[in-house]
């Protein structure tokens, strides 16, 4: 079981680093000896995750409201006004309303979570997020019994988001989760990374992180959360349903129609070179596989 919180990662020193390298070598050696290779069970769950640098995490982004280039969000997102910021929480909840971001974050229990991020484009990073569980926010507003899904919406502000001029997606960017996925303890609302406020290009002031799903499910700069009975409209599914399913769980055995999902390019210089094998549920299968028991994951991609 990997660690959910890693309070020591920020003051990790040379000794920790050496111990970490040693452990990785031992694991690699053991699995090689058994003929299991890198996909062997010892490496199945993410452990000893080595975070990407702050530079990498904040300069290689997807945030199409600011342009489709990987550098566009870092160059353009500084124009985004993130204060004041209101999140409308509505639909099937006991306490709907327009919540101020200070109120949401102020009452939340902020934790650190080091998670893999696997983009559907077959690249990956490791990001040390700060945030709180979505479940804690949903508990606070009171989910009603008929609610089965959670819908999320990003800000749509053309004056500050140059990418909205291009009809790449049907704006605003929208995403959604099944209620049990939303309530899962691994699902967080991120408010920061590396102990700093979330940079705009990473989705300030509030973005979703669902580590076992492709990165596009992690909707940025959220202004609305709606509890509802029906499966939500989601932007990428709308743009191309065959390529982007509602579930979009990371799955090395279900290829994108235009490329393989078996491996991923590691941003930065990884210990084992620049590619690694993609893991089922991005390595979080022990925690989340039961959510999909009995489902055909190539049908429900
Ligand atoms: N509103 C919005 N959210 C978004 C996106 C986007 O274009 N717009 N891109 C998604 C994709 S494809 C990925 S891989 C992640 C990237 O998050 P990061 O830039 O913080 O690494 O954000 C996701 N959330
Ligand atoms: Mo992505």
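Q: What amino acid sequence fits the structure above?
A:
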């Amino acid at each position: 079981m990997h660690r959910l919180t890693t309070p020591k990662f920020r003051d990790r020193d040379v000794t920790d680093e050496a111990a970490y390298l040693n452990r990785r070598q031992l694991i690699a050696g053991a699995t090689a000896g058994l003929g299991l290779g890198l996909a062997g069970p010892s490496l199945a769950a993410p452990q000893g995750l080595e975070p990407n640098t702050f530079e990498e995490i904040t300069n290689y982004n997807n945030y199409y409201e600011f342009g489709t280039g990987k550098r566009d969000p870092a160059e353009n997102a500084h124009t985004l006004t993130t204060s004041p910021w209101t999140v409308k929480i509505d639909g099937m909840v006991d306490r709907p309303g327009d919540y101020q971001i200070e109120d949401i974050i102020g009452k939340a229990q902020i934790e650190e979570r080091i998670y893999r991020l696997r983009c559907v484009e077959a690249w990956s990073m490791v990001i040390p997020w700060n945030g709180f569980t979505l479940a804690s926010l949903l508990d606070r507003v009171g989910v009603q019994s008929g609610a089965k899904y959670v819908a999320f919406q990003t800000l749509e502000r053309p004056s500050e988001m140059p990418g909205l001029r291009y009809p790449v997606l049907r704006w605003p960017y929208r995403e959604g989760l099944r209620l049990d996925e939303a309530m899962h303890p691994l699902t967080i609302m991120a408010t920061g990374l590396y102990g700093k406020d979330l940079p705009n290009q990473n989705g300030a002031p509030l973005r979703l992180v669902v580590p076992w799903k492709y990165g596009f499910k992690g909707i940025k700069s959220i202004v609305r959360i709606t509890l509802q009975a029906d499966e939500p409209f989601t932007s990428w599914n709308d743009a191309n349903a065959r390529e982007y399913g509602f579930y979009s769980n990371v799955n090395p055995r279900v290829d994108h129609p235009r490329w393989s999902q078996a491996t991923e390019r590691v941003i930065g210089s990884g210990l084992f070179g620049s590619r690694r094998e993609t893991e089922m549920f991005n390595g979080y299968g022990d925690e989340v596989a039961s959510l999909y028991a009995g489902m055909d994951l190539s049908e429900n991609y």
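Q: And what stands out in the fold?
A: Residues 1-44 have pLDDT under 50 and may be disordered.
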